[in-house]
Amino acid sequence: MNLQQNVDLCPFNTLALPGRAARYQKITAPGQLTAPELRAARRFILGGGSNLVLTGDFDGLVLHMAIPGKRLLREDAEAWYVEAAAGENWHDFVQWTLAQGWPGLENLSLIPGLVGAAPIQNIGAYGLEVGELLHSLSAWDFENQAFLTVDRKDCRFAYRDSLFKQEGWHLSGRLAIVSVIFRLPKAWQANIRYADVAQELASQAIGTPTPQDIAAAISAVRQRKLPDPALIPNSGSFFHNPVVSPAQAATLAAEHPGLPRYPQADGRVKLAAGWLIEQAGWKGKALGPVGMYEKQALVLVNHGGARGDDVKRTMAAVQAAVRAKFAVDLTPEPIFL
Fold first, then answer.
1. What's the mean pLDDT in 6-25?
2. Exposure winner among 34, 59, 299, 308, fewest CB in 10 A?
3. Is 333 considered catalytic here?
4. Does domain 4-65 have CATH number 3.40.440.10?
5. Per-residue pLDDT for 172 more than 90?
6. Domain at 70-185, CATH class
7. Which of 138, 174, 237, 307 is catalytic?
8. Catalytic residue among 88, 106, 200, 333
9. 183 is catalytic
10. Which residues are the active-site ones (predicted)?
11. How far apart are CA 170 and CA 114, in angstroms?
């Protein structure tokens, strides 16, 4: 263990915001987490930095999760159980499972970040959330100084939410996820109910898509809509899609006939945050060095030289515009550090 001091975090967040960590340690094996020198009063567990807004310097310890490894743990008549370490690139892992003939995760193709962060945010796209296929995960508990296993039913998954966010464990640095086990059912069914995906497949005259076809279609759609962070720094979708009451959704639909609406299992209605932002006039609009992407209004981008305060200023302006036009509050997805 060789803790680094005063480390630049700009290369470790996809918004390319400046900030330094007072102490920094790259974690490449679970056993490193047990080291006494990591029991700092203030910690932050860093993954791929794709869901992070740096607001300045961090005066604590940053643990950068980079544990590698993936394998077929076991299989039975109904499913494959596939384990991936926290430091595995998410998209690469998804493509690997498909190449092995274990479908199920294809709708989550090209989502940035690492495997270890996926359960925290309960990442989701195109009709699938990672919590639906997660079996269990292993984590190091700094408070109790022990490894623990958390089953899917105990993760309290919800829309872009989980036990780890609800209890504040991630932001406080109490838990560090080291590996995740996914249960991929052998009775696979294509999930192409989102119009963008169906249209992409139709454009290629693919009537009966394979899992690889769906992964390729979703990757193509995402690449058209979302900027490459290496070229235009961003953190992907910046706001949650708001969920409102049926009455509020009906009122808004009457006032705005083009409003996209998605009924939820609990009776509420999910709205498309990107559509609200675009209608509020923020698609392609910037406030200083930070703005909303010209091709997808849900994506906040750094046009160059932005700091955390610039992000917060633009975020507040977008929230105010949407609130004024629709009486709907937008909540940011990224973690602010």
1. 97
2. 59
3. yes
4. no
5. no
6. alpha beta
7. 237
8. 333
9. no
10. 160, 237 (proton donor), 333
11. 15
